[in-house]
Amino acid sequence: MSFDPHTQGFSTASIHAGYEPDDYYGSINMPIYASTTFAQNAPNDLRRGFEYTRVGNPTIVSLEKAVAALEGAEYGRAFSSGMAATDILFRVLLKPGDHIVLGNDAYGGTYRLIDTVFTAWGITYTVVDTSVVDEVKNAIQDNTKLIWVETPTNPALGITDIEAVAKLTEGTSAKLVVDNTFASPYLQQPLALGAHAVLHSTTKYIGGHSDVVGGLVVTNDQALDEELLFMQGGVGPIPSVFDAYLTARGLKTLAVRMDRHCDNAEKVAEFLDSRDEVSAVLYPGLKNHPGHEIAAKQMKRFGGMISVRFAGGEEAAKKFCTSTKLICLAESLGGVESLLEHPATMTHQSAAGSQLEVPRDLVRISIGIEDVEDLLADVEQALNQL
């Protein structure tokens, strides 16, 4: 059987895409090119296209190519954080007087950036439930340039039909951008469903080990990519080469990690759903989730994130957060270790009083890859304290 690098499987691509051992030393892994600048053969005669790390570095480019390959994209650009990637995307796609359609369960940092920075720049926005396609349709205006979708959403795990929303942009100047952080490229590929660009906080599942911060944007739109490239070098929000290396190393095991995240999350969600202390389990893998059928259609599996609402309200939610012993109370998600947090007072505090305010009885849990028996025992003993 012959090997075709263009049709290789996901795990194969996550290990091999973006780099081949060079002729010099034959390093199996992409080297960390810790150099700010690169020698030139003659004035403006570059060696393999590299001149200065802010505008291009082999280690960073390798990561960009690898993530793009996994998303089925032609182009990828890496940034110093997910929020840096978000900011650059906004600045490329928006001009004063433009309008955004934003989900009512968007990440708090995204909402804060729009509401405090871009509104001062003359940008307006409309908040809708993006899981209801008609709400998105009715919110689109003549000056709408961006529809921003998270699916699953953070933290309520809402599901949006990417293909249906993408069709709404036909014949308009609006671009659909999907924040694919919660799903990762392994579980969902929005470009194939009609999205114009996909954003990742690579800090989360792609890096996977809670030791590196980064962001990445992929697209098949050459003109958009050229603008992203210009802003990447002109503004300079690039990742360090060390961070790019760590992120690429994490990417190699994304598939096997995501399967374990999903295995564990399915069992923990079912257990939580059986408990009287819990008023609702928000997990798209449960058949009673309103987005279950759409998630099953557009995702490979249902992910490692679970949100829980407690019958005892905010007091019970906070008590649960401080009662787990294995699952650590901390912000962030997508690492090998399980984490939980109280979004209303932590990651989404900036959304208080807005249309994106998070219920105070809700706890978000990032299920790690520990032995599921230990996770279930920890959740049980914490619930027993309520």
CATH fold topology of the largest domain: Aspartate Aminotransferase, domain 2
User: Spatial order of the strands in the main sheet?
Assistant: 3-9-8-7-6-4-5
- Percent in strands: 15-25%
Portion of residues within helices = 25-40%
Judging from the principal axes of the Cα atoms, what is the shape?
globular
CATH level 4 superfamily of the largest domain: Type I PLP-dependent aspartate aminotransferase-like (Major domain)
Total helix count?
Answer: 13
CATH level-two architecture of the largest domain: 3-Layer(aba) Sandwich
Q: Return residue spans where pLDDT drops below 50 for at least 5 consecutive residues.
A: 1-5
Mean of residue pLDDT values: 96
Number of strands: 14
Structural class: alpha/beta
In the CATH scheme, the class of the largest domain would be: Alpha Beta
The main sheet comes to:
7 strands, mixed
Radius of gyration: 21 Å
Q: What distance separates the N and C termini?
A: 59 Å
Number of domains: 2
- Return the string of H and E elements: HEEHEHEHEHEHEHEEHHHEHEHEEEH
